[in-house]
Amino acid sequence: MTIGFFDSGIGGLSVLAESLRRLPDQDYLYMADTLHVPYGPKSQDEVKGYVFEAVERMMQEGIDALVVACNTATSIAVEELREMYDLPIVGMEPAVKPAVEMNRATGKRVLVMATALTLTMPRYYALISRVDDGGIVDSLPLPELVPYCESLQFDPAVLEPYFRSKLAAYNLDDYGIIVLGCTHYPFYADILRNVLPPHISIVDGNAGTIRRLSALLNRFGIVGHGSGRVKFMCTGNEPAYLDKMQTALAFVSENLARREEAAL
Fold first, then answer.
1. Which H or E element spans position 60?
2. Cα–Cα distance between 42 and 257 in angstroms, integer?
3. Average pLDDT score, the chain
4. How far apart are CA 174 and CA 183, in angstroms?
5. Strand order in 109-114's β-sheet?
6. Separation between Cα atoms, residue 13 and residue 246, nearest integer Å
7. Residue 171 burial (C-beta neighbours within 10 Å; 0-12, 13-18, 19+)
8. How far, in Å, CA of 180 to CA of 260, rounded?
C-alpha cells in the first residue's frame, strides 16, 4: 500500500514527517509541483489545473490514498478530487477550531498565518464563520515565507527579523495562539518561537490531518505492510529538487523529534 502526499513544493514534507512518525508501516509517494510553486500569487483556476495534472500522475503510480498536503490546494480542489477518484482523500485545514477552543477561556486572540490565496478562499471564510463566534481570529499573510522555504532558507539571522517586522503591528499580549496555516510554515516553528513571548502557543494542522488519514485507512481496510519508504517525484523532474526534498524531510523530521523530546 502506498499513501500519496501532494504539495506545491516541500511544505507538505512537514505533514509527511508526522505521518512517518504515526504510520511507519506505510510506504509513501511524495509529489511536489515544482513547475508552479508557489501557489499563493496564482489564480484559483490555474492552481486547480496544476493540482489535477499532478494528482493524475500520482494515480498512474498506483497510490491507495491521497493527502493534499497544501491548504491552498485543499481549498481549491479537494472536493472535486473526491468526486474524481474512488480512494480516501484527506485535505488540510488551518487549525482554527482547536485554537479558538483552546483560547475561549482565556480571552486571548488567535492569529492565523497563511498564504494570501488561502486567506481569500471561501472555504477559509466559511471555517472562520463556523468556529469564530467570538470574533477573536485575525489573519496574517506571509507571502515571502514559501519562497524562503523553497530555497532552504532557515537562517535565524534572516528569519527572526522577518517575523519581527511582520508582527510589529500586533500587540502580542492580546494573543494566545498562532496558527500555522500553510504546510511550509512549520519549518519555521522553532525560529518563530524565539521571537514570540512565552505565553503564545504555536499550532498547526499536521497531527490532526494524520489522525484523519489513519481513521480513513482503517475505514477503507487499507492495512500497511510497508517500512516507511518514501519515493519522491516532482512535476519538473529536476534531480536537484529530489535531493532538496530529502534534505528538507530530514530537517523537519529532526525538528519534530526535538520538540517532542523537549515536551516529555
1. helix 44-61
2. 34
3. 93
4. 25
5. 137-141, 109-114, 175-180, 201-204
6. 9
7. exposed
8. 18
Q: How far is CA 191 from the centre of its chain?
A: 17
Q: What are phi and psi of 41, to 5 degrees?
A: -80, -5
Tell me the catalytic residues. 70, 182
Rounded Cα distance between 176 and 259, Å, is 19
Q: Give per-10-residue mean pLDDT for the chain (264 aa).
A: 94 96 95 90 91 96 96 93 96 93 88 92 92 94 94 96 97 97 94 96 94 93 87 92 94 86 70
In 3-state terms, the chain is what percent helix, strand and coil (to 5)?
A: 50, 15, 30
Do 40 and 64 contact (CB within 8 A), yes or no?
Answer: no
- Checking phi first, is residue 92 left (phi over 0); if not, alpha (psi -120 to 50) or beta? beta
CA atoms of 90 and 31, how far apart (whole Å): 15
Instruction: Count Cβ atoms within 10 A of the Cβ of residue 168 and give its class: 0-12 exposed, 13-18 middle, 19 or more buried.
Output: exposed
User: Which amino acid is present at 138?
Assistant: D
Contact 32, 235 (CB under 8 A): yes
Domains and CATH numbers, the chain: 2-92+206-263 (3.40.50.1860), 96-204 (3.40.50.1860)
- Reference 86, options 220, 226, 223; nearest CA is 220
Report DSSP state, residue 1. -
